[in-house]
Structures are given as C-alpha cells and as structure tokens.
Specification:
Elements (H helix, E strand, L loop, with lengths): L7 E2 L24 E4 L14 E10 L9 E7 L21 E4 L10 E8 L17 E7 L24 E4 L1 E6 L5 E8 L6 E9 L8 H8 L4 E4 L17 H7 L3 E4 L9 E2 L5 E6 L2 E3 L1 E6 L4 E9 L6 E11 L4 E11 L7
Parallel strand pairs: 9-20, 14-19
Antiparallel strand pairs: 1-3, 2-3, 3-6, 4-5, 4-7, 7-8, 10-18, 11-17, 11-19, 12-13, 15-16, 15-18, 19-20
Length: 348
C-alpha cells in the first residue's frame, strides 16, 4: 500500500518524527500521543464507568508552516475485532462517527497541538478484562483538515484505521496489572475474525527485554496506577484541567526526575525491568505455547488467556506484546501488557 500524503501525523513511538514509514514489526498500538485522564487532568489506566473520561490526542507535523483548524476524530474500540476504527467503535464513544474536536492552537513542526473529547463509558464497556469489573479497550484517532486551500486527510464514518500506511491514524492500547499470589497470573482476552470467511490466525506473545520493558509510555502508565508512586523527584507540578493539558501529567512529573516505586511497602521498592524472564504461555481450548494458530469463524470471538508466572521479586516489571496476524504475516493488531510483581499481601 502507498503511504497517505500529508504533513500531520500521530506518533507511534516517542522518537517518531513523522519523516519515515512505520517499520515492519513495530508495536504501533502503543502511541505516546493518545492518553486518558479524569476531568482534573490526572491520567487513568482505564476509564471509569458512568463518569466523564477525557480522551486526549496530540497532533504533530513535519512542516514548519503552521496549520489551523486541525481536527481529530476518536473512537473507543473493542480490539478483539482484529482492527480498530469506525467499524469496531463502541456505542458509548459515538459509534461509527466517533467524536470530533478541533485543536485549539496552530500545529507545526515546532508546536504540536492537542485535541480533547469527553467519553462517558457505560457498563457494556467492561469487556476483555480478567474479571467482570474491569475492561480493556483501545482508543483510535484520525487527524484531518477540511478547510481550503490545503485540506488533508478525511473524516471517517466507516471502515478501519490503517496506522501503518496512514500517518493521520493512531492507536493506543496499554494495560497494567498487579501480579501477586502463587501460580501463573491469567490475563484473558478474545480474538475475532475481521474477514467474511473462516480463517486461521497466528497469535504470539513475547516478553520485551531490558529498557524496552520500561520505556516512556510504560513508565507513564505505571505512574498512572494507584499502586505506583514517584520518589525523590521534584514537587508535583500544579494541576492542569483536562481541557488545558498539553501532555500527560505523568510525563511532566517524570521529566523532573525521580524513581518509580511501589506504594505501601515498608522499604523503598523501586520498579525495574525484571532480571529473569517470566514463564508464560498463550492458552486456548486447543493447546498452549508462545505462538498458536487459531481457527476463527466470522463473527466468532475465541477466548485466549496469557498465563504469566514470574519470580515474584517485588517491583520487577515484565512487559509483553501480544500480536494477532494472518498466516502470511500480515499484522492485524496487538496489545501491550505490563505485569508488576508485588507481595501477596500488597493491596495499594
């Protein structure tokens, strides 16, 4: 496919400058430019049902000339469809039309802009989680400009986002869990077939090495949870209302220095990449392994569990990418999961 022309883009990783295509095999579903907050501007790892949740999307540009009236369309999606976008959108986030906001400032290479929309999740959005009280959904974004003389991109009301070949599209999907207790910690999700006929898909899981396990996005998400704190850093920056945010509050805090630690521990327990890899496997009714072939009928949702068993050294972080692709290697989508080892008694 040919990359869509234009200057505007949504970052797929922290170092993305929009000058090149997304390399094959990159985890483009963990964009640092899409995040959720409460109305006070505090980042949240998952939405709260029945309350206003703010979706923020940062738009960057490869052009030094400023662009005005830049618009961002967002959808909250069930990633088990094998794709995200209008055709996978949740009704609570506006359905196929999604929700649209205009970036209040001009966007250029030197000055990114941020759009904000409010999403009110409901009980039907509590899906794909390890228990009925949690949900795992993805946020998709589409950037466009309608005004003359230089329209760019297009508003969507159907179809799927194509993050690889259209830099106007972005995808955010990161989940953090506490791993405690004895035996493997199971994390459940589902796979679906986006095509019209029965097909076989390959689902794989891999653990990221070293610093990749705790990059910028991962650290921000860890700090947004209730069981992680920042020690020895600068004083917290003043609160910024959600509608005024230019970046996640956690990004601002981390830039000032400090160390991520577990809350509620008798001694300082820093978070750090695990020294030893976890034992893990994908499990279906057909078997278990790091990679499985799964036959799926159209409209069917096949349950899959990632069973993770770690050394349980408090504060160690294990990060996994779970990827669904066709037999010929076409990546349909993925999920990033961060597991943090905590003591059995840990409850913060």
């Amino acid at each position: 496919m040919t990359r869509m022309p234009g200057d505007l883009y949504v970052k797929y990783t922290s170092g993305d400058d929009g000058s090149a295509a997304i390399p094959a095999g990159e985890a483009y579903w963990a964009s640092p430019s899409i995040w959720l907050t409460d109305p006070a501007g505090n980042s949240i790892p998952s939405a709260v049902v029945g309350e206003d949740n703010w979706v923020h999307v940062q738009v960057d540009s490869t052009n030094t000339d400023p662009r005005s009236t830049v618009k961002v369309q967002t959808w909250v999606c069930d990633f088990t469809a094998g794709f995200i976008g209008p055709d996978a959108a949740r009704a609570s986030s506006g359905g196929a039309s999604g929700q649209t906001a205009t970036v209040a400032t001009d966007v250029s290479q030197a000055t990114p802009g941020v759009a904000h929309v409010v999403w009110r999740a409901d009980a039907t959005d509590l899906i794909n989680g390890p228990n009925p009280d949690t949900g795992h959904l993805c946020v998709g974004a589409n950037v466009y400009v309608e005004t003359l003389p230089a329209p760019e991109g297009a508003r969507l009301s159907s179809g799927r986002l194509d993050v690889i070949d259209n830099r106007h599209h972005g995808w955010k999907n990161v989940t953090v869990v506490r791993a405690a207790g004895e035996g493997p910690a199971p994390i459940a999700f589902r796979l679906a077939n986006p095509g019209p006929e029965v097909d076989v898909f390959v689902v794989t899981a891999r653990e990221l090495d070293g610093e990749a396990a705790m990059g910028q996005v991962e650290q921000e998400h860890l700090l947004a949870t209730g069981f992680v704190d920042l020690a020895d850093g600068a004083p917290d920056p003043p609160p910024v209302p959600a509608a005024c945010l230019r970046e996640p509050r956690e990004r601002t805090r981390l830039a000032q220095g400090g160390q991520l630690v577990l809350r509620g521990m008798p001694d300082t327990t820093p978070l750090r990449p695990a020294e030893q890899r976890a034992r893990f496997a994908l499990v279906t009714a057909e078997g278990q392994d790091h990679a499985l072939e799964v036959g799926i009928r159209p409209g069917e949702q096949v349950p899959v569990v990632l069973a993770v068993d770690t050394a349980r050294e408090p504060g160690e972080v294990h990060t996994f990418d779970i990827v669904q692709q066709t037999r010929d290697g076409l990546v349909l989508g993925g999920a990033r999961l961060i597991a943090v080892d905590v003591p059995d008694w840990h409850c913060c």
